[in-house]
Amino acid sequence: MTEVSEILMSVLSTIRVPRPGDRVHKDECAFSFASPESEGGLYVCMNSFLGYGSTHVDRHHAKTGQRAYLHITRTRKTQKEEDPNAGSGDPPKKKPTRLAIGIEGGFDVDQEQYEEEVKVVLFPDRQEVTSDDLASMPDVVRERVSLSMAGLQAADSVSHALQVQQWDGEVRQESKYAAELKQLDNGVKIPPRCSYLSFSGWKCEVCDLQENIWMNLTDGKVLCGRRYFDGSGGNNHALLHYQQTGYPLAVKLGTITPDGADVYSYDEDDMVLDSKLPEHLSHFGIDMMTMEKTERTMTELEIAVNQRVGEWEVIQESGTTLRPMWGPGLTGMKNLGNSCYLNSVMQVLFTIPDFQTKYVSNIDKVFAEAPSDPTQDFKTQVAKLGYGLLSGEYSKPAPDPGDDPSASTEPRGDQVGIAPRMFKALVGRGHPEFSTNRQQDAQEFLLHFINMVERNCRSGMNPSEAFRFLVEEKIVCQQSQKAKYTQRVDYIVQLPVPMDQATNMEELQEAERRRDEAESSGAPPPAVTRAQIPFAACLAALSEPETLTDFWSSAVQAKTTATKTTRFASFPDHLVIQIKKFTFGLDWVPKKLDVSIDVPDTLDLSALRAMGQQPGEELLPEVAPPPLMTPDVEVKGILGSHGNEEDDSLYSPLLSPVLDDSTVSQLCEMGFPLEACRKAVYYTGNTGIDAAMNWVMGHMDDPDFSAPLVLPGSSSAPGTTPTESVPEEHLATIVSMGFSRDQATRALRATNNVLERAVDWIFSHLDDLESMDVSEGGRSEGGSEASREPPPGPRVRDGPGKYELFAFISHMGSSTMCGHYVCHIKKDQQWVIFNDQKVCASEKPPKDLGYLYFYRRVVE
């Protein structure tokens, strides 16, 4: 022990005591999904506080020279079967009573109990030091090591903080109407609910509904609540009453107890607190202290939905028993709280060879080149996730100490799986949505992740090229028959759903009639009838020409009608198709189309290949439309005061556009930012509210959505100059796509340094860019025409447009912001369903109900 004491003394400077703000990774290895519960436990560096599994700690020691590690092992406690009559034993798992995570009464994050053992291990000989051993060591050693051990044990680990992320969905604010709520002296008294009556005692005064009943706290009207997305709930009579009277507060009868009740404010559009609720109820003869709860609160209803969503039975295929699968490429992923969208997308991506080659095939090289903090390195964490999914190391049945192994003959299907906490935290960092525990759109996450791959693969292999393709848009002026061609890069084909092409239209109309009858009579709604849409009709809707009204034709120098046709200028190796199920109703309320589409196993898109300019076809002159100007603006000339013949700026930045004030006002009243409304009206040419609203809905996610309007040709926003420097990161991203630095600079300056807009701009100005000086391409303006090489363009792969389906992601729920995602992947001619930690052979894959479809090229 004297030798060990001397070693500790020599490395005492590398043993730190955790301070507030230090990131302690004591639950997960930086390079693998090893944890203290894994075989070999977890080694936490006592200097950097990074965790390493038994297979990675030697590398860290060799690379850094660190010798002292805190070794943590956890053993699952044996859970004995509980005797209901016994006075001891662990209490049963409590049912959640609050819509919350990580707080008393909420959803428990971790129900499992462990016994933990900690000791200091000194490398390279792995000498062990326990707390008892420290007692015989010098005071300075004992004090520093003991404090470090205690501090590491007491510190909250980073992964646990990410997992819990305390959230309470029941935190309600006091209503602004509660203190001085007006109550009418109309003599209304509400009788208590009577158990001896033939009905419950309360019913809607309009439709006689007896459930989901609310009382308006101003006039005492008893009416039914809102109708839910599935047709259940009420008939909206309480809401309609508010719209007619403006009386804001209502209480849900049946939830009133001495502790409170559900109070909703229609004007504030939220559940609220009413500090004077006993007084307000007493006005209508209700004694709050004697009331008992007879209906589920809104929180209990939401909890029931949240518990239901994750159940395996919800997505079982036609009630069949699904066979669990294990092994390489069949690893489940734990749901970290609404992270099923991430799980589904990453499962599919790591079946694609490009991602396997980039991140998994050379994983030793990736780990060897990792920075000092690998938890913050994109390449390291993606490689870690890919290896975890493909290796099979974590594809093994999850232990269930509550079950007697001899009593069950069927495997349960749950896996140990992997919990992608570090990965989720890294890819979501700084993002307003993906950094939260809320449900997200799988398509939006896929594009977000591809964008991160693009930014992190500026040199070397870029796996996102597997999805990248060029789209050609051809616009033909109907008056002059002259055409204009533009190209843009894309990663996903968005397929429209033409509801008017449903093959069961008569059945849908009959279902609509029955639903209307049920609504008018107050009867329960009938079963939902799903529209049957042919895939060919969706493809035709994508490829058919679109009519453009009020198109400004440079050939006739006036507005006219044009047609726009979209085609593939290249076909990617892997094609992603999104079924546009999520749309907006006439009232701009988001809704999901409940449709069944006969998506084929094989796909031939050869007929949709772009042909480019045809022989004898004339192109529209490259002359821009006249700017919209106010009458009192002095016209500086077609080039403007800042323009020149070599510049792309055709208008003066000083010109002010004429905008339809009424349309701008209407958009602002809907809650959109003023500058966004001005841009919507400007870019739709003052053509009305519908066109402007469509523009708004299509650009809400733009980074510059609320930024001031910058006129075409102006490369600077207010307060900047045209020569303002461009972000080096954005330059590198565009250059990595095959363009020169000069071209990337010009694109960014033309779009106010907004990367997404710059990429669109550069693809719509390829002809202009061809004549540019290319500083990095070896081409100069003085070179001869014959010596000029083709202009650089985006790196896209091209080949035959024939594909086969290998995966699809499905969504269950009324909106992308709620519900559940699963994915089906074809593995060795067998369809496999991945539902978070459960991986099973699929018997009847619901290919007609998917949201995102993944095809790979068929090479003949």
UniProtKB/TrEMBL annotation:
Biological process annotations from GO: protein deubiquitination; proteolysis
Domain annotation USP: ranges: 331-858
Limits of the UBP-type domain: 173-288
Enzyme class: hydrolase
DNA-binding keyword on record: no
Binding residues annotated for substrate, in chain numbering: W214, R226, R227, Y228, F229, Y264, Y266, D269
Active site residues per record: C340 (nucleophile), H820 (proton acceptor)
Swiss-Prot/TrEMBL keywords: Hydrolase, Metal-binding, Protease, Repeat, Thiol protease, Ubl conjugation pathway, Zinc, Zinc-finger
Family matches, as InterPro entries: Papain-like_cys_pep_sf, Peptidase_C19_UCH, Ub_carboxyl-term_hydrolase, UBA, UBA-like_sf, Ubiquitinyl_hydrolase, UBP13_Znf-UBP_var, USP
Region (Disordered): 74-97, 393-415, 507-528, 773-799
PROSITE patterns (UniProt xref): UBA, USP_1, USP_2, USP_3, ZF_UBP
A Gene Ontology molecular function term of the record: zinc ion binding
Residue ranges the record marks as coiled coil: none
SUPFAM superfamilies: Cysteine proteinases, RING/U-box, UBA-like
Catalytic activity: Thiol-dependent hydrolysis of ester, thioester, amide, peptide and isopeptide bonds formed by the C-terminal Gly of ubiquitin (a 76-residue protein attached to proteins as an intracellular targeting signal)
Binding site for Zn(2+): C204, C207, C224, H237
Residue ranges of every copy of the UBA domain listed in the record: 658-699, 725-765
EC number: 3.4.19.12
Annotated family: Belongs to the peptidase C19 family.
Classification via PANTHER family: UBIQUITIN CARBOXYL-TERMINAL HYDROLASE
Record protein name field: Ubiquitin carboxyl-terminal hydrolase
Source lineage: Eukaryota, Metazoa, Chordata, Craniata, Vertebrata
